[in-house]
Amino acid sequence: MPRTPARLTAVVAAAALAAGCGITGTGVRPAGEPVQGGLTGKSGQLLRVYFVTTEGTWPVSRPAASGDGSDNGSGDGSGGDVQEAMDALLAGPTADERARGLASQVPATKGQVRARTSGGRVELRLPWLVRDLPHLAVSQLVCTAAAGGDPVVEVYEPGMGDRPWEVRCDENGTAVPAGARRTS
């Protein structure tokens, strides 16, 4: 049976596809450590900060100035990366983040929100009553604090003394009571 040009073209095309166009396999290569909590890797070089989109809260990663993932090494529980993440939240989204549609509902303030790790918990001290904040602002604050430490955040409000309420950030980026049942 004589070969036709169309049939010969099809055989050549199939052979080229089977050869993989000259690309050889590289095998399995390591990709590094996965993201862990609010800090990536063990070095803590990135902070996780929560901003707002039309869909709710959205985490972004920011370089950490301290870069060591520690509680600033002072041993005084003054916050380290947790406070640094909170300061980044209070500063608001960058111009590039705003261009991507990110915003903040946290009221503008500087240095009045305190976040620190203490006794395996994250303490978040606010200058406002939570009831006066938009619910997305509360989620931004709690999720940013939780991303930098323990998932349970103790929130202290003015006039409430030392009676915090315990919350956590759920898988949707929403502040919920610490005892709330997980939906996933």
Write a structural description.
With about 180 residues, the chain is of the alpha+beta class. The protein has one domain. The protein is about 25% helix and about 25% strand. The protein has four helices and nine strands, in the order αββββααββαβββ. Strands 5-6-7-8-9 form a five-stranded mixed sheet. Strand 7 and strand 8 form a beta hairpin. Helix 2 packs antiparallel against helix 4. The longest helix is centred in the first third of the chain and has 15 residues. It starts with a helix and ends in a 7-residue tail after the last strand.
Low-confidence stretches: 32-43, 68-79
Strand order of the largest sheet: 5-6-7-8-9
What gap, in angstroms, lies between the N and C termini?
Answer: 63 Å
Overall geometry comes to: elongated
Topology, element by element:
Layout: H1 5-19, E1 35-36, E2 39-40, E3 46-53, E4 56-63, H2 81-91, H3 95-99, E5 114-118, E6 121-125, H4 135-147, E7 152-156, E8 165-169, E9 175-177
Parallel strand pairs: 6-7
Antiparallel strand pairs: 1-2, 3-4, 5-6, 7-8, 8-9
Helix pairs in contact: 2-4
